[in-house]
Amino acid sequence: MRILITNDDGISAEGLKVLDAIAHEVAGPGGEVWTVAPAFEQSGVGHCISYTRPTMLSQLGERRFAAEGSPADCVLAGIHVAMHDQKPDLVLSGVNRGNNSAENALYSGTLGGAMEAALQGIPAMALSQYFGPANRDTGNPFEASAVHGAALVKSILAAQPRDQQDYRLFYNINFPPVQAVDVKGTRVAPQGFRRGSHFSAVEQLSPTGRRCLWIRGGNQHVEATPGSDAAVNLDGYISVTPMRADLTARDAMAALKAIESTGT
Predict the structure, then answer these.
(1) What is its EC number (predicted)?
(2) What is the pTM of this model?
(3) Run of H or E residues at 78
(4) Is there a contact between 178 and 142 (Cβ–Cβ < 8 Å)?
(5) Is residue 101 annotated as involved in ligand binding?
(6) What is the mean pLDDT of residues 119-126?
(7) Who has the most CB within 10 Å: 10, 68, 137, 175?
């Protein structure tokens, strides 16, 4: 198996080292693992692509590249440049430092990389590690994903449905904020919503008196939709959420039929 890995925390991130080990175990002795990751941190860029400017690509070693762009840029660079149009069998993105459950999924560069792979027709998974008091300050906060990641990826590959839709499936995987021994299991869960918690902006004056803004995240440990990804994560379970890039709100289409008209 040929696997392409990327992330949004950057080429030197600890989570990418964890993902590299996961990918090598999944690929097997005869497989290949290619890395194309951002040269600098790209957290929060979503599915951004560098459409209006060139992206520098540097080779750092055998099958290892850094791109001065987003995770989606890295996936495009991996598929069409680094791997010379020999598409990978699987794209893995992560392991993100922090969860991409609930509304975080919409901002995530980690998911952006997996989404781009799906748009290219390649199976893809985004892996993220929830942080909390039980694992944040330990010697290895990524332990849960490191221990359980490879087996879970193999299980999803074995169980995933045949998918021929235009918008292909990709998977959002979040490991709970606990040590590996305390992981209760895995739950297939829908994307949730953290009520009362959201991103915000705070103002700060620079030493020269200029107004600057910092984007601040919300509380990641508030109650979420019962049974959803964030809720099961906080209960000690790994969440697996199948996703597609189709953003159509199909539940609203019937109500809007009244506005349809024909040309004159």
Answers:
(1) 3.1.3.5
(2) 0.95
(3) none
(4) no
(5) no
(6) 97
(7) 175
